[in-house]
Fold these 2 entries.
Entry 1:
Amino acid sequence: MDEFYGWAGKALDINLTTGKIETKSLDRDWAVKYIGGSGFGARILYDEMPPEVPALSPESVVIISQGPLGGTLTPTSGRCEIIYKSPLTGITGRGNVGGNFGPQMKWAGYDIITIRGKSDKPVYLWINNDHAELRDASHLWGKDVWETIPIMQDEVKDTVNDNNYRGNISTLLIGPAGERIVMSSAIMCGPSRAAATASAAPIWGSKNLKGIAIWGNKGINLAKPAEFIKICEAKREKLKEDPFYETKQQYGTLSWVGGAFARSPLGKMVVGGKPTEGLEEHSFDAIIERSLACTGCPIHCAHFLNVKEGKYKGTKGEGIEGYVQYLGLAWQTPSAPFLAKYNNLCNQLGSDVAATGWAIEWAMRLYKDGIITPEDTDGIEVTYGNEDAILELTQKIADREGFGEILADHPLGAAEKLGKGSDKYASHCKGIATYTVSPGISWDMSNTVAYNTATRGFDYLSSMTYIQLPGYLAEWIAPEILENLAEEKYGGAEVVLDGWAKDIRKMKMVQGSQNDALLADMVGICKFASAMLCPRGGLEMADLGELITAATGEVVTAEDLRKAVEREIATERAYNAREGIRRVDDYPFFLHWQLKHGEPNPLWDYEQMPFTLETYDALLDEFYKLQGCDVKTGIPTRARLEELGLKDIADDLEKRGVH
Ligand code: SF4
């Protein structure tokens, strides 16, 4: 067999219908072309999940994929990517998860695990290096994530010789929410890490797959080990040079919301002009007990939380992302102990904190405007600030019980079931919910275009022009650093300084940050170490090229990586086009509504919005041009697809009449 370095060189294919498990070899040229992680996944999804196959059918395929740097000494390489057709949106679905599954998968000897078919009873998959088997999971079905992990580890521990099996046998699981095909459910790695965006967990629920346990000790072959280790050390030092490094170590994503968003004009708009004091990242200081890290990460951005007093005393658990704090702002329940309680409940149920949260916030707004009453909500007063109601609804959603049966399909499915004009409130982009007060608008113009043009629906993680975040401009980054960066990367400080300006140069920022973000998912590192989220110390294309070359022995340049990431984006855009996505789907909700209905959405005063349709159109035109997409449709052109080595995709689109 061809010897692989960096990549493990193998894919594991599981058919849940037949129980057949096969190991396949990777094709080297294919690996070099698509690199790994989301790059592998996008191509397999295009080839194996055509429009004729519904996301929740037995034939649907879920791909778990690693990059060539995953599980190595590269800082933050403890991630892995899950790729699927989303049952929520019907288009590209992708979730990236930290913890230790990705490294264990690589150490067991696999770059790709593909799951297809449907088991006739609940099962889980146990992978121990070359050994893989399906085991009965009937006794685990209905159990929450925290209950399931130790049972599963105990059941398989005898086949490994590992005193630290609790720490090393990694699990990817669904909880009760995923089993009940709840659209806001998540695949959980360990007790708190979630692959959540665009609903992979309902697919596992529909396949009767409770989860995967994995343990590997085969290590990773490296082409030039000594050189690779040296480069890793240098990149680790480079990361420390980033002006945000220490903030990330201390607060992780909590710094985004408390530190930047709450102080921004948009933050104030979101909380309805209410003061945002007290919502800073350090409002969590009293309950943060210690830092936690994914495998091999020097940043250790996560936390172990322990609430020592008050109503939620005794609440202990891992995690908490800035997103939960953002929800605290939206719900008017900013107390850190309460948010820790909510976070834990979601982790146990296998629910996505964000999607569940937006479903509840949607209900709050409907309740406030009298669209729904206690008669619709099982008697619950769904008012802003009502912590008990939030916890009760979270449980009901995971159980699909009562009003939870409606909220479980938020946003579009829920609005359709409820009726009463609730679709006006169901702010979304390509089926992914956004906060209703700011209907698809982000911090500024570039991030608004970035989030709404992302291939998996409204998405702050597929492209974030970090340099633009408002709090940083004033307080976190010295003006000269900002100006130099803006000059260097985007052609002028003014491109960055005026957040809402109609300046088409901003689209280069969007394209650049999108490339940096997706490259992290391809190679197998965390976005917290990527150039997207570290403007000074992040691992840029040249750094990653150096690392991949030393790891794999294939010469991979920055230009090769730029092309590979643009290939992934074009593949995903073509995939979405084949599913019916067009330009109208790349607008923020208030404009999308106007274009679809021929009139403004009555909930918002368009005069008060920070930009107009005309401004957005001009920027979108420019963004499409940069991406090689047809300006009318948003579909990658044949010329672009061929330039990226995707002629077969161009032919497929033509054959299917996609234009
Ligand atoms: S920065 Fe945080 S999320 Fe990223 S790998 Fe490190 S600990 Fe995990």
Note: The mean pLDDT is 91.
Entry 2:
Amino acid sequence: MRRTSLLLVFGFILTFTQAQVDTGAEEETGGEDDHVELFTTPTTKMGAATSDFGYNLFRALASREAATNVFLAPLSVSAALTQLSMGGSEQAERQLHRALRYHTLQDPQLHRTLKDLLASVKTAGKGLSLAARLCLTRRIRLKQEFFDLVEQQYGVRPKTLQGGAKDMKEVNDWVSQETSNNVQRFLAKPLPRNSFIHTVSAAHFTGKWTTRFGTDDQMMNFQLDGGTPVRVPMMQQVNYPMKLGVDSDLGCTIAQISMQDDVSMFVFLPNDVTSNLTLMEDSLTAEFVQDLSMTLLPAQVTLTLPKMKFSYSTDLQPLLGDLGLTDWLENPDLEKISSQVTKLSTVNHKVVMETVPEGNQYPSPSSTPGHLTYRVDRPFIYLIRDDPSGALLFIGRVVNPKDLRM
Ligand SMILES: *[C@@H]1O[C@H](CO)[C@@H](O)[C@H](O)[C@H]1NC(C)=O
């Protein structure tokens, strides 16, 4: 496990405090035997497994799409691929479960645990909607028992594709409906003709802060790696209560900003202006982020954040090979779906996110702003996490907010 040593730096290091919670100290002195289990309940273990899958997928995407904005809502991808895993032979299921990190769970009630987790993160106050479904071509003989099995377990019946233009409209209408019309035009073009199985995964997230921002929509500079700064709308607030820490190994300052209904945003802001955030990307694990949530220190900060509203879509299928699924992609052995040879053709994924300045609390009134500032005005990584389960809801790398589009 990666050691975190975080310093909270006030202005010109007027004061600094070594953030070292009890669990951290124990690990430092003890050996492997003293390893503290961070995830102890089925739900937090599932939260960690889906997060670790999400970080792996994010790394694969981030390295394929170097130096660009990239986003994922990994839990929706986990949900869609888990439905697919139910159609595999025992060995195929095991392969897919390994990539999904379920081998760490030893949970006989895996599907129920995931279903409960999905239900809990979709409660209205968290601002997240998710959609996950399988679409299967009728060019192969499909086993109806599989449709029943998935519907019984996840309450969503796989869709049979007819192979015409209507398929695209129906898929898009379904995604739109599941996300309260927030994710539109899920498929931008018809599904390829000679294809078999498609997973649909989509998410919409509206940031609902605990503490509101007083200033919104002020145009400010955002630095680009090797380019002239761009002017983008920013939200700003003095004396903003949040948690903060400096990670000198990663060369970044990490913030945890509280959102409503036990959701947090974590921001990883590098010290220098660079679009190469590999070091930070590589450090992300469920354990590391859980550790952060315990070691970052509370502070009152002048916070400046870009106001974001965007959609992002991509086909993740080519990335699955990077997650150890090369053999599985060749021969997914989906015997419970069809006795004919079939393959996973696309893993289309679309996310929409918006941040608004509103919150349900005001920052403490004070005429003198503190010394600390946290100005997110250069390429950064952020993630949205459900705190009780630890599940990663959303993750993104923002290199140029000017390129973000709805
Ligand atoms: C990005 O940074 C990492 C480590 O900081 C380095 O190994 C890698 O070569 C860099 N990549 C590029 C494209 O500069």
Note: Residues 42-64 form the longest helix (23 residues).
